[in-house]
Amino acid sequence: MFFDDIQSFQNVVYQQRFAEAEKAVKRQKKELEQARKRIAGLDRIFKRIYEDDINGTISHERFLKPSAEYEAEQQALTEFVKAEQAAVDTSRKVLRRSL
Predict the structure, then answer these.
(1) Statement: residue 46 has pLDDT above 60
(2) Is the pLDDT higher at 16 or at 40?
(3) Taking 80 as the threshold, does the pLDDT of residue 98 lie above it?
(4) In angstroms, how far is CA 79 from the centroid of its own chain?
């Protein structure tokens, strides 16, 4: 590709970087949605095993292990969502300012 002037070249580079940044934000948003769905899924799972524990379907000891694992996973996902949402918000602001 040949450019007549430096401004044309800069515009092409800017457009490419802007497009890449938009793709990155879309990818982050998709990861956020997946994490939020998993958090909701963990809530449903936890509720089921809690009910099984209360009903005596499983022993309390059997309930405790997955319960702790699900809580730890959910906590990690919640922290991920907070951090990733902050990054997406920052990226959006930067993209808006660059328009």
Answers:
(1) yes
(2) 40
(3) no
(4) 10
Q: Which amino acid is at 26?
A: K
Three-state secondary structure along the chain? CCCCCHHHHHHHHHHHHHHHHHHHHHHHHHHHHHHHHHHHHHHHHHHHHHHHHHHCCCCHHHHHHHHHHHHHHHHHHHHHHHHHHHHHHHHHHHHHHHC
Residue 15, pLDDT score: 86
Nearest 10 degrees: Cα torsion 44, 45, 49, 55: 30
Taking each helix axis from N to C end, the angle separating 6-55 and 60-98, rounded to the nearest 10 degrees, works out to 160
CB-CB neighbours of 13 under 10 Å: 10
Residues 77/39, Cβ–Cβ less than 8 Å: yes
39 burial via Cβ count (<10 Å: 0-12, 13-18, 19+): middle
Q: How confident is the model at residue 62 (pLDDT cuts 50, 70, 90)?
A: very high
